Amino acid sequence: MELIKLRGRTYYISSATNVGVYRYRNGLCTLIDTGLDNTTGRKITQVLENNNLKVKYIVNTHAHPDHFGANNFIKEKYPGALIVASCKERIFMENSILEGIVFYGASPMHGLSTRILKAHDTAVDINVTEGVIELENKKFEIIPLEGHSIGQIGVTTEDNVIFCGDAFFSEDKMEKYPFPFLFDVGAHLNTLKFLLDTNYECYMISHCDVSLENPKSLIQKNIDNVHQNLEIVLDFLAQPLTREDLTELIIKKYDIPMNISQYFITISSVGAFLTYLLEKQSINMDIIDGKMYFYA
Q1: From CA 10, how far away is CA 39, in angstroms rounded?
Q2: Element (H, E) at 240
Q3: pLDDT tens digits, residue range 142-169?
Q4: Residue 139, burial from CB neighbour count under 10 angstroms (0-12, 13-18, 19+)
């Protein structure tokens, strides 16, 4: 890992989940996301120490463990650091078991407590909403980027660099995960359309090796991917299917490697696509003989 300059005083640390760094002149910094776990946190703090930096703030784009799992480790290293998140994501960060409850609908079964689904609870010090906030006398703009999660935010620095979290995905990630994990398909499409009309100097997404100066074609490919999956779901629903039936067909179509956590990630995203199509009145739903069926 190393500290890579983007523009002005805005940097990032390249990792499995990229970590944004805004460097103040007094040796302090703001982090945007922290990565999955203590191992990642240890590597991040080493990079910061190599660059004579101490953490003052951590802004989390959303409450998936690969974005806030190292918060506690870093806060123990820098006890004065303050953690910043949106109100909706705060609930999940402070009660990480909720992620498994959302997937399962009850007390999570064994297999839903893996580190990709459950982090250590982490307290949030500052709630943020849409608009400009000041951290250490520097202005950051908070941008709602909901869809991938319930209250995801983007963070824009004074250098006109936006950290987008998982608002959209690289071509490599779309190839590896062609059926994306989404909480709200409609909100995700609105986020993508919003970003398509923006003109930041630099865009940083969480799972990409490089920053993006002109991501418009990539954002459009993300939109196209969602619409393609909507068409696939509609084609499958030419015959009545349960949510489990549809999930099975999606898994087989994309040959998605399966374990318990991946199954629930997939069936949750299938639910998001069904909700979107129901709201658009593109499909119908009936309960017959104790089963819920969806059909076009």
Answers
A1: 24
A2: none
A3: 999 999 999 999 999 999 999 999 999 9
A4: exposed
Band the pLDDT of 111: cuts 50, 70, 90: confident
Q: Is the pLDDT of residue 74 over 80?
A: yes
The Cα–Cα gap between 234 and 38 comes to 42
> Which 3 state secondary structure label does DSSP give 142?
strand
Q: How many CB atoms lie within 10 A of CB 251?
A: 18
Q: What residues pair up with 128 in beta bridges, in sequence order? A: 86
169 and 249 inside one domain: no
The per-residue pLDDT for range 33-46, each reduced to its tens digit, is 999 999 999 999 99
Structure tokens at 246: 């549809």
Q: Which domain holds residue 261?
A: 228-295
Residues 13 and 115 in one domain: yes
* Residues 200 and 240 occupy one common structural domain: no
Looking at per-residue confidence, does 289 or 116 come out higher?
A: 289
Q: Domain ends where: 191, 208, 224?
A: 224
* pLDDT the model gives residue 213: 82
- Domain edge (last residue) among 224, 253, 269: 224
Candidates 50, 55, 53, 91; CA nearest to 73 is 55
* Whether residue 136 is found in the same domain as residue 173: yes
Residues 197 and 146 in one domain: yes
Assign 208 to helix, strand or coil: coil
Q: How many domains does the chain have?
A: 2
The reported pTM is 0.95
